[in-house]
């Protein structure tokens, strides 16, 4: 059985494709290829069909990640096939909870930084879109820091389902 994770930000061109690339690499390193499917989407469809922001691509590639991506909008019907929906900030969390058809679907939604013990109460990954490269680099640091804890949680679910 495949465990499905979808990262969600606003337009699906900055934060969520970054998180998707990083987490896909983490799952591959952990030997979970074929057992975990990683995807991303936006709460809005403004950028549907577009590639990731060039600054996202540059930061990912300089850190050794792949960055093939086409933006798309998250739809409520997706909850039925997803195991975990990861919001990049509290605004996305609220939007996704409004979209969730059932309480069970709403329970699948988590903030990415909730998987980073060092994040404390600051669980939002700030939107780097209107700033410079330093914002994208900071975003990558936050995504990488949270990905370890997220990987541990996903591994526990995948290994628990295999038993």
Automatic annotation (TrEMBL):
<keyword id="KW-0378">Hydrolase</keyword>
<feature type="active site" description="Nucleophile">
    <location>
        <position position="9"/>
    </location>
</feature>
<feature type="active site" description="Proton donor">
    <location>
        <position position="127"/>
    </location>
</feature>
<dbReference type="Pfam" id="PF01451">
    <property type="entry name" value="LMWPc"/>
</dbReference>
<dbReference type="InterPro" id="IPR017867">
    <property type="entry name" value="Tyr_phospatase_low_mol_wt"/>
</dbReference>
<feature type="active site">
    <location>
        <position position="15"/>
    </location>
</feature>
<feature type="domain" description="Phosphotyrosine protein phosphatase I">
    <location>
        <begin position="3"/>
        <end position="153"/>
    </location>
</feature>
<protein>
    <recommendedName>
        <fullName>protein-tyrosine-phosphatase</fullName>
        <ecNumber>3.1.3.48</ecNumber>
    </recommendedName>
</protein>
<dbReference type="GO" id="GO:0004725">
    <property type="term" value="F:protein tyrosine phosphatase activity"/>
</dbReference>
<dbReference type="InterPro" id="IPR023485">
    <property type="entry name" value="Ptyr_pPase"/>
</dbReference>
<keyword id="KW-0904">Protein phosphatase</keyword>
<dbReference type="InterPro" id="IPR050438">
    <property type="entry name" value="LMW_PTPase"/>
</dbReference>
<dbReference type="InterPro" id="IPR036196">
    <property type="entry name" value="Ptyr_pPase_sf"/>
</dbReference>
<comment type="similarity">
    <text>Belongs to the low molecular weight phosphotyrosine protein phosphatase family.</text>
</comment>
